[in-house]
Amino acid sequence: MGYLITVSLLWAFSFGLIKVGLSDLDSTAVATVRLALATLIFLPFFRPNLAPKPIRLRLVTIGAFQFGLMYVLYIAAFRYLQAYEVVMFTIFTPIYIVLLESALDRRLNRPAMIAAALALCGAGIMKWRLGMSPYGMIGFFLMQGSNLCFAAGQIAYRRIRLDWKDGKDGQHFAWLYIGAVLAAGLISLGVSDWGAFRPSNDQWLALVYLGTLASGLGFFGWNLGATKVNAGTLAVFNNLKIPLAVTVSLTVFRETTHIPKLIAGAAFMAIALYVTERKRSPAS
């Protein structure tokens, strides 16, 4: 769980950094630049001839969906939703993880479903607000597509590592990020005005941090951690970033929140983590 905890903390700082420093830049271009910087981190590990051709295709496809298309759908949702609504709708990711894992295994993982449901309740307590902007359902479905891409990528990566045991994680991720930057880059060519994309020096520093640490090493650590836990624990950690992000916002970025909701939501997630770890099988 150490990988997942570390990355959750890393991502908790990213929310405030993006909001404070990059809100005036084209979001699709920002996503493409982040993924391009993340790709550079893993190019030294890139050994294309070591991976069998079917494995290459699978890794590129996983990266295109989990990171590339996920970012595109996530960004598009902001056209129809308020920021808090986007965050709120990410709480469905753990349910998709458990459902996909159960479907692939052809069995219902009840402890994992219970843990995911508790995590969903905890995140919902903290993020739920009444009311929705016009065309909110379009944004809702865009977010569910984003959630599905991220959930499916995590599950797929857990499994592909079993099929290519000779490959190192750095080699895996070089292929993943190539797929991601290709997907996001091709889409951005049609929707982004690259001529107007002119970040300031401070914004470039933020992009370098987000690309190399949050996106690069962050997603690497997350997928690596996902291979070391069961589906229920992975589902819980997909929502753990919410209370962590709120805590960082309160202490570092001086934002405000509803403290009773924060405590209640964190309690649900702690119970969920206990449930899934108590039921964890030796094979997990």
Write the layout of secondary structure elements.
Layout (H helix, E strand, L loop, with lengths): L1 H20 L5 H16 L10 H25 L5 H7 L3 H13 L4 H18 L8 H28 L5 H23 L9 H26 L4 H21 L7 H20 L6
Helix pairs in contact: 1-9, 1-10, 2-3, 2-8, 2-9, 3-7, 3-8, 5-6, 5-7, 5-10, 6-10, 6-11, 10-11
Helix content: over 70%
Structural class: mainly alpha
Shape: globular
Bin the strand percentage: under 5%
Largest sheet: none
**Tally of individual helices:** 11
Succession of helices and strands: HHHHHHHHHHH
Radius of gyration: 18 Å
Distance between the termini: 12 Å
The total count of strands amounts to 0
What is the overall pLDDT average? 80
The parts where pLDDT drops under 50 for at least 5 residues are none
Tell me what you see in this structure.
- The chain has 284 residues and is mainly alpha-helical.
- It has helices at residues 2-21, 27-42, 53-77, 83-89, 93-105, 110-127, 136-163, 169-191, 201-226, 231-251, 259-278.
- Helix 1 (2-21) packs antiparallel against helix 9 and helix 5 crosses helix 7.
- The mean pLDDT is 80.
